[in-house]
């Protein structure tokens, strides 16, 4: 039996499954397009790819495979550096494109690299199945709440002190956005969702970034248990204003 020595012909395309998360489509003009899907990535590292290629061509040792892949990387990057597009093993074409705008008088656009997948690459996922579908609101991720006066992150905040919130998608901006302290009442530590008894942070935020918020506690705030409520229309970028106001809640903190 003849041995298949063609690298592209020796690589199979097994059918797989992916997980998908649904998020609100904040840019939709059609009520039927309420959500957009985001696949959960499961990335093969360079080492994984080299080992898989070596498994497909056992007549070559892994050191040879690594050397070939390393040379391929250099050929592609050097070709792009010389202003050429590159057909990468019929998987698709890397090409140079303009990035952003320019006035055209004293400057030229910045350059970037883009990729057009080939029919071979597109056909590889034709039979892929959605293994899991879940819904995810684009809310903030609060990883730590720190009392600036004491440096502690144990859920206790100093009355009339300052607080730092760390996490992701925390940037406050857009109409009706802000930070509030909502009293957590009873054994269940529930809050009034209407916001009737919430206290808003009126002072200017010392730090307002997607990963960090820093601000003084409202001077009118009394001691007790609260949840911190964040409302924003641009949790990651001040230039990207969402139609929908995103609301996020912290765990209960004690102020005293």
Helix content: 10-25%
- The whole-number mean of residue pLDDT values reads 84
Report the major sheet.
5 strands, mixed
Beta-strand content estimate: 25-35%
Across the major sheet, the strand order is: 8-15-14-10-11
Radius of gyration, in Å, reads: 26 Å
Structural class: alpha+beta
User: Distance N terminus to C terminus?
Assistant: 81 Å
Query: What sort of overall outline do the alpha carbons produce when their principal axes are compared?
Result: elongated
Oligomer: single chain
Describe the structure.
The protein is 16% helix and 34% strand. The chain is of the alpha+beta class. The longest helix has 20 residues, at 62-81. The chain is elongated.
